[in-house]
Amino acid sequence: MSKQKQTFLSKSLILVALSHAITDLSQGALPILLPFLKNAFTLSYSQIGFIVMAQNVTSSVIQPVFGYITDRLSLPWLVPAGLLLSGLGMAVTGLATSYSSLLMIVVITGLGIAAFHPQGAKMIHNASHIHNRGQSMAVFSLGGNLGQACGSVFMVALLSLPGSTNNTLYFCLPAFLLAALLWLNMPALSPKLPRQHSSNMKKSKANTPIPLAMISLLLFYIFFRSSIAAGLTTYIPLYFADYLGGSHAYASYLVSGYLLSGVVGTYVGGVLGDKFGRKTIILGSMLLTLPLLILLPHASGYWTLPLVVAIGFVYIASFSSTTVLAQEMMPGYEALGASLTIGFSIGLGGLAVTLLGYIADHFGIPSVFSVISVIPIAAAILAFFLPGRLFKPDNIAVSKQAG
Questions:
Q1: What's the whole-model pTM score?
Q2: CATH number assigned to the domain covering 3-402
């Protein structure tokens, strides 16, 4: 690994990962805010699901548009701009005066998230050695998962202070700080390539076929995985607080524990993916998640916390492996590959929240968890047919299939 890449991984990678965390604060904070918004605007569960869908569509489904553009053009400024827009959007969410204005604010916040991720993931991939891509992407992904977890904790703390939902204004502070740091370090984060090298890269992109069948298979897997994620983060607080009559604080702790364990799982899964192969982690993650989700509706008392922690660790472990696998199958289209896996398919999973909201309204919230518990079966079947060999580092094999 060159000295330039070593410097990036030791300094700039941390800055990009931290910026990822600040960008994703809103994604962890919004589920905690939902019960308060539900009471303030007398919303149905279907309307709650539509709020989540609006955030997911704008923050995730349209990410491939940004990914395609950033693969063709150099737009590193999208990283600080996206972070700033995400933070400002979340800052004014608690000030919404109507359901329609709330939806508009959520959409604006989502656009900031969509602008940040493809370019940020492309920076990480291009600066990583082939044998450490999983670990590097895990650090980047860890930032996002940590941001979601801290977002929920931050929101709990703000809602407990005088002013309640008006305190969301404080989300603008970390956004301004990190956006400024990113802007000041932009030359190091996105160094300009020589003209000849840039020309060769464009020719390589034009001649590299994209394995559409395998990419589609991977995206369907992520769709199922993200359906589980969106369902759990949305309905865990509603189930344990509204349905079972528990405290909102304990329900928030469950979400925070679930997301924080996912932070650890993301890094461990990325490292193990480099060692044992992406496919091994992707398949194993769903096989281990299945029995844990089956147990969740039957858990009671304080046993729920270690159970949701275990679920978060195991199922989010495949996060970085799916992103790196897509980038390795799409050489020259790293931003597009990241936007499809981090954004598009995850956003489609968010659409499942609307369906789960319909199920909750008509059959009760426990039915939501029954549906979620069978999704890993379909995901595991898809994972079995992904490229690569089980228990073998498969980045070289995937590159051959992709090329």
A1: 0.74
A2: 1.20.1250.20
